[in-house]
Amino acid sequence: MSILFKAHLFLALYLTGLIWFVQVVHYPLMGKVGKAYFVAYENAHTRLTSWVTAPPMLLELGTGATLLYLNPGLALFQVNLIAIVLIWASTFFIQVPLHGRLSEAFSEAAHRKLVQSNWIRTVLWTGKGGLLLWYG
Fold first, then answer.
1. How many structural domains is the chain composed of?
2. Residue 24's domain spans which residues?
3. pLDDT at residue number 1
4. Is residue 128 classed exposed, middle or buried when 0-12, 13-18 and 19+ CB atoms within 10 A define those classes?
5. Cα separation of 63 and 6, whole Å?
6. Which DSSP letter does residue 40 get?
7. What Å distances lie between residue 53 and 15, 37, 56, 59, 110, CA to CA?
8. DSSP per-residue codes, 80-113
9. Which of 53, 45, 33 has its CA nearest to residue 107?
10. What distance, in Å, lies between the first and last C-alpha atoms of the chain?
11. Averages of pLDDT over each 10 residues, the chain, 136 residues
């Protein structure tokens, strides 16, 4: 198992654990903050969460693309990169706009959609993390 694969596996499993925490604990509890404090909370959440999500997501994308480049015929790395692209698409086309709406004012509908739509990323990271563990 190469150092590149180990690094990618670490990132994938870190992000899998993080997304489960977000899905089961963090996002559901956002609805309990209260309307008076929610905008400040959401803005702090968005700013602080970027520190623990953006660097590993960028590294995961880079190491995943490199693994596929070095092993173009390996279906595992093809599926892995497709999952990463779908996670990024979900993040930037669904979750980021919902956070944008929530940064202006609390909306039960936007919050509910955030929690529900985040299952896309939770399932994708869990599935690809499991496949990578199986391969490794």
1. 1
2. 3-135
3. 75
4. buried
5. 10
6. H
7. 8, 24, 6, 10, 21
8. HHHHHHHHHHHIIIIIHHHHHHHTTS--HHHHHH
9. 33
10. 7
11. 95 98 96 94 94 97 98 96 98 98 96 98 98 93
pLDDT of residue 136: 84
- Give exposure, 56-87, as e/b (b: 16+ Cβ within 10 Å): ebebbbebbbbbbeeeeeeebbeebbebbeeb
Tokens of 105: 């004012």
| 112 residue type, one letter | R
In single-letter form, the type of residue at position 23 comes to Q
Q: Which two tokens stand for residue 102?
A: 């929530």
Residue appearing with tokens 């903050």: 33
Distance CA 133, CA 27 (A): 27
Place of tokens 């880079």: 62
With tokens 């999500």, the residue in question is 53
For residues 130 and 41, what is the distance between their CA atoms, to the nearest angstrom? 33
Structure tokens given for 6: 């180990």
